[in-house]
């Protein structure tokens, strides 16, 4: 059995933040030796990819860690994607997370890419990239059913995605149900479980409302009990994430992908509690 991977997601600083913040995060994460670090596309869904590519390149060149470039296509056409792929080649960025992405009001929809599978096919035609794709243990919020979402995922894998990074979830039984469905339909790609530790109640409620992840009763109790105690909330969130990860690793998950929200303290606490299990 292959060793499970351990990885992080980070994002470029928003316009109001100093670039030094993300440098500090990377310095604090470098000795955790993740298998890769994924870098989201711009800040808050920005259509500007320059920060993403610069940060992904920095991860590889300075910190000697494999980086994965997020690439959403919902507002980009073939010419836009081609420019980004060419820049990735120049910077030796060989791994791409191909995404449909979130709709940004006021931005024109792509004429060339309706689904992430369309983007995957185009990437395969324009370079020797290793392609990652997103998956949704509780189904994508736009999918008509769980079964339909699994069929759509099979299309992405057949188009060329070799590794899947899951959306966050808080009930491991949902992930195991999802794994079983993937196995039944013949999806052979590696599946990394996406884990997001709680940092504060408002943040997690916003994120779950956007992505459609449910909040189980046990998790709701944590949010209610510690909503007015920031330190306790962080500690409870870390403990909950660790419990999830231990269970997932015990059950043979392919990898753990931590959504750090650029919080190196939380990432380090989780690493220290679980790294001997990998």
UniProtKB/TrEMBL annotation:
<comment type="pathway">
    <text>Amino-acid biosynthesis; L-methionine biosynthesis via de novo pathway.</text>
</comment>
<comment type="pathway">
    <text>One-carbon metabolism; tetrahydrofolate interconversion.</text>
</comment>
<keyword id="KW-0486">Methionine biosynthesis</keyword>
<keyword id="KW-0520">NAD</keyword>
<keyword id="KW-0285">Flavoprotein</keyword>
<dbReference type="Pfam" id="PF02219">
    <property type="entry name" value="MTHFR"/>
</dbReference>
<dbReference type="InterPro" id="IPR004620">
    <property type="entry name" value="MTHF_reductase_bac"/>
</dbReference>
<dbReference type="InterPro" id="IPR029041">
    <property type="entry name" value="FAD-linked_oxidoreductase-like"/>
</dbReference>
<keyword id="KW-0274">FAD</keyword>
<comment type="similarity">
    <text>Belongs to the methylenetetrahydrofolate reductase family.</text>
</comment>
<dbReference type="GO" id="GO:0009086">
    <property type="term" value="P:methionine biosynthetic process"/>
</dbReference>
<dbReference type="GO" id="GO:0035999">
    <property type="term" value="P:tetrahydrofolate interconversion"/>
</dbReference>
<keyword id="KW-0028">Amino-acid biosynthesis</keyword>
<keyword id="KW-0560">Oxidoreductase</keyword>
<dbReference type="GO" id="GO:0071949">
    <property type="term" value="F:FAD binding"/>
</dbReference>
<dbReference type="InterPro" id="IPR003171">
    <property type="entry name" value="Mehydrof_redctse-like"/>
</dbReference>
<dbReference type="GO" id="GO:0106312">
    <property type="term" value="F:methylenetetrahydrofolate reductase (NADH) activity"/>
</dbReference>
<protein>
    <recommendedName>
        <fullName>Methylenetetrahydrofolate reductase</fullName>
        <ecNumber>1.5.1.54</ecNumber>
    </recommendedName>
</protein>
<dbReference type="GO" id="GO:0005829">
    <property type="term" value="C:cytosol"/>
</dbReference>
